Amino acid sequence: MNLTDYFNTKAKTFTHTVLMGIVVLGFNTIHPAQAQTAAYPNKQIRMVVPYPPGGPTDLTARVVAAEMSNTLGQSIVADNRPGASGMIGAEMVAKADPDGYTFLANASLHVINGYIYPDMRFDALKDFEPITQLAAVPLVLVVPMSSPIKTVKDLVEYAKKNPQKLNFGSSGNASAQQLAGESFKSFAGIQMQHVPYKGSAPALADLVGGQIQLMFDSMPSAMPFIKSGKLRAIAVTTSKRAQALPDLPTIAESGYPGFDIATWYGYWAPKGTPAAIVEKLSQAASTALKKPNVIEQYAGMGAEPVGSTPAEFAKYNASEAVKWEKIVRMSGAKAN
């Protein structure tokens, strides 16, 4: 072999070695992330609920999370972080690592807050990855059993005769419960004072105790009190009657056509969570929502299971934001 052939051979060997090194380096760069996604989940998952235990968001989320744990092979632990109309817990998730081990369970309030709190420190549409819509739920107008109010007509007549005596509770400022009450005030031409709470559970406790006079509450949290006879259901807020209370009239039927307000619940992950992980969580939730025991429990709470895909839920988030912005403006609801 002459000197020229020798150097040509060495050059080819060196080039091959470098190329192989680049390929190996590429595999080493890509492989860990792919392996992390493929192995997901390999530890406990935290579900942040931005309200106290026992409220409608907490109840609808826990039922599904329990079944998801079985599917995913890892426990999902609820972490209740109430306060600031659900914004404390939501902000925690917005700032969490986007690795699939923290996700948010929230209500329609998630896309409403921005229209009530313009200085909110996160964006409900931009800082989260929608996972799935869990349920759609009518609100139900409830009063204590000791109340003289038995119909929507009774309520309006009482409010007009006693304009300073009616306080209605809600799970917090900007909640669907508050907006239902504010919208009803506008429809009926009456005055009522809004009293915000840190979740439905404490508001219902005060309603049963007589500290407030009425509430437009979500069915999952109100139904046990209705069934036990502690609260009287007056009407539902949706355009159609609720499956759980088929004999109960709608507010629209009770003299206020066009009144139609409902709430809903869903799961969100922090922005940047890998699409494969979001899809895995969504599929696990969808599977759970088809389980007979979940369907039965949801029916008992007056909730109708949904189980949308991430893309469907993202589109729904956007359309609901537009809808609720109009309702907020019409109602004149403000943070207080």
Verbal overview:
It is a single chain. The chain is α/β, with parallel strands linked by helices and 336 residues long. Helix content is 47%, strand content 19%. The protein contains eleven helices and ten strands. Strands 1, 2, 3, 4, 5, 6, 7, 8, 9 and 10 form a ten-stranded mixed β-sheet that branches. The radius of gyration is 26 Å and the shape is globular. Residues 17-25 have low confidence and may be disordered.
Helix content: 40-55%
Strand content: 15-25%
Q: What order do the helices and strands follow?
A: HEHEHEHEHEHEHEHEEHHEH
Q: What is the tally of beta strands?
A: 10
Number of helices: 11
Q: Which residues sit in consecutive blocks of at least 5 with pLDDT less than 50?
A: 17-25
Q: Classify the secondary structure makeup into a structural class.
A: alpha/beta
Q: Which whole number gives the mean pLDDT? A: 89
User: How large is the radius of gyration?
Assistant: 26 Å
- Give the end-to-end Cα distance, rounded to a whole number of Å: 90 Å
Choose one word for the global shape: globular
Described by strand count, sense and barrel closure, the largest sheet is: 10 strands, mixed
